[in-house]
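Shipment paperwork, digital attachment
Item: protein structure file
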Amino acid sequence: MITIRDIDHVVFRVHDLETMARFYTDVLGARFEKYQEHVDLYQLRVGNALIDLIPADGKLGKLGGPPPGRDGHNVDHVCFRVDPWDEAAIRAHLAHHGITDVEVVSRYGADGEGPSIYLTDPEGNHLELKGPPWPPTKGD
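Attachment content:
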């Protein structure tokens, strides 16, 4: 039996490395961790996981075939658990970066039903920011 604990890393093939790296560091709070020059791989840390950015026209990126576009993605979405969850602060932070068309919806995640905000990165990858489960209601 295999027991998966959490996400180790996610890899995005990208057109504009600088814009994508800036989005993940400035908007979502990732921090640069490592550049692996021999495969042209940029690694950003988010919590205990990594977001890997590979230029689609680079050494490793070319192995994946044509790059994804606005109308075709190779990933539906990636969900990042946000802790602590402060809806007002998250909305204000996103608005500061020009992301204003957001709403909180209730979705079921690894910890149960709770708040989620959906957005896209500069190259159209769909992302979910996931909060903690809602508190139990009387009778639960």
